[in-house]
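If you are new to this repository, start here. Below is one unmodified record pulled from the training split, so you can see the exact layout before writing a loader.
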Amino acid sequence: MGRREQREVRDRAELLRREKQLAKPDYKLYLLVLCVVVVLIHIVDEIATNTPGMVESNAVKQFFPNLDLSTGKAAMVAITTPLSSITMLAPFYKALADKFGRKMFLVVNTAGFGIGMLIAFFSTSIVGYAIGYTMIFFFIAHDMQVVYIQESAPAKYRATIYAVTKGIGTIGLVAVPVLRRFFVDKDPTTWKSIYLIPGIAAIVVALLAYLLTRESKVFLEQRINFLKEPYEKRYPEKKKLTKEEKKEAKKKAGKSGVFSAIRYLFNSNPDIRWTTIAIIVFAIGMMGITGNINVIMATGMTETEITNAQTVYSFGYALIVIIFGLVGDSFGRKTTVMFNGIMSAVSFLLFVFGVRNGWNSWFLGVLYSGFLGGYWTAQDYMVFMTSEKVPTKIRGSVLGALNLLQYIGIFAGMLVLTIAEVFIADEWIGIACAISALPGMIVALVLIALHSSETKGADFEQIDAADEML
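And here is the target side for that same chain:
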């Protein structure tokens, strides 16, 4: 059997399977059940995302007991970074969702970061901990539950449903300070115990997702349409193109895959291009804003005070997510991005100043919510805006491409932060973080304000139809 025949047999089998999946009606209250599953995934996702940062100073003290916090942090980064660089493959993995579907990755990702948390719990050395840490951050990068909501919720309530599910899920983040108060406040050496229960819970949630969720209908319709196309259109024969033909092909590129998606992001239209650039520039601030919070607090707060601030953050972040989901559907995504970006920058400066001057730990928790919740919400909605502007057939690839492009900003921010830390004393690490983070954030917000169009109420069917006409 030749290659063409093999492809035809495989595609016919997939077409029958996808048509059967699409024809199967949703069971009663399916959207509600899907939202509950998404809430549970958000809970374990937020715990997995935030736990490493919330116990960072404890990890440094255990694995590098003879070094001060800043030097120990640098040593841990030097050891974990080479292994963590595998997370750069995550965008290519994420793009596979455009070919194999959303459900598979919803389940695998959730189980994956659960296993990562369990590895971190059982680790006995910095290398073992780094392996668990890497698994966690590899699998949390994909947020397939967000794609599910985007493709399943009614357009006019898309941001609201996303925000409510994530907001309720974010409240579950309070489990980390609760576990921290139970374990770390009494005995700081038991900090790894925080990973155990959430790790088991993530694997259980992955099983529920496998049993209760269906494949996204938007994906199924797009995939069925693709499989019904003539063989020559599905697998066009490669031929030598002129320079003009290559330029036009790149401009209209709609094929799934990270590199095709990158070309699409920069060549499709100026709106998407500037939004993409803003996302890259905003990522310059990621390490400064998110990467040293526990270390900053440890320079001027007790373990109990740190736990107090983290408890407030759990509820404050959830409140921010829910409020701005409503804002996003009522006043637009751009308003959400701008307000949260400004709130993040101002709150971070006040937080750094407050830690240095012994402000109340509960109020510092409010500022903690403002800068970290604001940063993640602004970033999420920039990505949300981009995904609402692209065809379904490349949405997963585009999200993967954005993940990869963000590394440009992340590495630039790490370089600036490292240089700043060399010239600033350990107790002023918060100032070093502000120097590395705030300029990029401000530039990104200016780009969004000037060059990005609103996407509130975006019609995916209309976008897909327009793409087919190209």
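Two things worth knowing about this chain: The chain has a mean pLDDT of 85. The radius of gyration is 23 Å.
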